[in-house]
Write a structure and sequence with these properties.
Elements: H1 4-11, H2 16-25, H3 28-35, H4 40-49, H5 54-60, H6 63-71, H7 75-83, H8 88-98, E1 114-117, H9 122-131, E2 139-142, E3 148-152, H10 154-159, E4 171-172, H11 183-186, E5 197-201, E6 207-212, H12 213-218, H13 231-253
Parallel strand pairs: 1-2
Antiparallel strand pairs: 2-3, 3-4, 5-6
Helix pairs in contact: 1-3, 3-5, 5-6, 6-8, 7-8
Length: 258
């Protein structure tokens, strides 16, 4: 109960069925804290198995753990889970997490991203990157309370010699977007000049998801798009992103240094 991060790392040595059984044997509040710290792929397998009770964990865990757990739940299942919670206060708080204003950047958020606790050993980070469906899947680093710290800098991992430490050692500060920001305002945000995607966080700094510049521009009227003067910078950022994706593929294939 006092060290959910350490317990979650220990569980990774078990089979999916064993992980599910051990989480089910824990008190619901403790299980919520542990499950919220498991890699997204592992938690996804547990949810798909139908052998766990996510609604029970959402209701019993801390608010931070419940939000983190909900953020890793498939989008099509979230609303039903939240609406079924008996606690009115918890239900309303999680509904706020789910509801994005129309024509806002939050409405375009994708939850398909990797979240790493700042103290996650770099070997575990690489293991999760290897399990990711695509090499360039966005990844963020969060603190022990599930608050956003920054983006995982894979290029720093690539140049590290040796590759040791924790996820927090390879984080860079990237200004996130708020979900309520209108699309036309979001399209003019300066971070787009340096990044191909941006994280989206709520007012409590919980990560809601991410949005790519390409998807954002597809949903903005031509008159509201980034100015022509920004085009060279955007092209350069896109080229850098492609190079970083290629380098990340090499990193994932390389042995871990610790």
């Amino acid at each position: 109960r006092l060290h959910p991060d350490a317990f979650a790392r220990v569980l990774l040595d078990a089979t999916p069925a064993e992980i599910t059984a051990m989480c089910n044997a824990l008190p619901p509040a403790t299980a919520a804290g542990v499950a919220a710290r498991l890699p997204a792929t592992v938690l996804g397998d547990m949810l798909n198995s139908g052998a766990i009770q996510p609604a029970l964990w959402l209701g019993a865990g801390s608010t931070d753990d419940a939000i983190e757990l909900l953020g890793r739940t498939p989008e099509e299942r979230r609303l039903a889970l939240v609406n079924g919670l008996p606690d009115r206060t918890r239900r309303r708080r999680l509904q706020q997490f789910l509801n994005y204003p129309p024509h806002s950047i939050g409405a375009l958020a994708s939850d398909s991203m990797l979240r790493f606790r700042q103290h996650t050993p770099i070997g575990d980070v690489l293991a999760e990157l290897r399990r990711a469906p695509v090499a360039e899947q966005p990844a963020v680093v969060i603190d022990d309370a599930s608050h956003y710290l920054g983006v995982l800098a894979t290029w720093r991992m690539l140049t590290a010699d040796p590759l040791v430490g924790e996820a927090g050692d390879y984080v860079i500060t990237v200004e996130p977007m708020r979900p309520e920001v209108p699309l036309e305002s979001a399209g003019r945000a300066r971070p787009w000049r340096d990044h191909n995607w941006l994280p989206i966080v709520d007012h409590s700094q919980h990560v809601l998801g991410w949005v790519s510049r390409a998807r954002m521009l597809e949903n903005i009227d031509e008159s509201d798009e980034l100015s022509p003067a920004s085009a060279p910078l955007i092209d350069l950022a896109d080229a850098m992103f492609r190079v970083e994706a290629d380098l990340l593929g090499n990193l994932i294939a390389a042995p871990v240094g610790n």
